[in-house]
Amino acid sequence: MPKVPISEAANADLNGASAGFSNASRFWHQREEADQVRNGIFIGLAIVLFVFLGSMIAVLMMHAPAL
After folding, report:
1. Dihedral sign from CA coordinates of 15, 18, 21, 22
2. How far is Cα 18 from Cα 15, in angstroms, rounded to an integer?
3. For 26, which DSSP code?
């Protein structure tokens, strides 16, 4: 069986195509940023919740002045 010569250009094309598939997902970076934004939103909501609960406790601790 005769050996078929493989050109270096064909190998470079095949290697470049296979290397490109490792970064095929173009939404990967957006997913990471969405996770950071989501974490920031949750932290902000937790702070707002604590402030709200603190204000409710302050209101419940108030009483009318004696007459």
Report:
1. negative
2. 5
3. T
User: Tokens at residue 45, please?
Assistant: 């909501």
Each residue's pLDDT tens digit in the chain (67 positions)? Answer: 677 666 655 555 555 555 556 666 666 665 566 688 999 999 999 999 999 999 999 999 999 888 8
Rounded distance between C-alpha atoms, residue 49 and residue 41, angstroms: 12
Residue whose structure tokens are 């997902």: 25
CA 14 distance to own-chain centroid: 32
By C-alpha distance, which of 22, 18, 1, 2 is closest to 10? Answer: 18
What ranges do the domains of the chain cover? 35-62
Give residue 40's pLDDT. 94
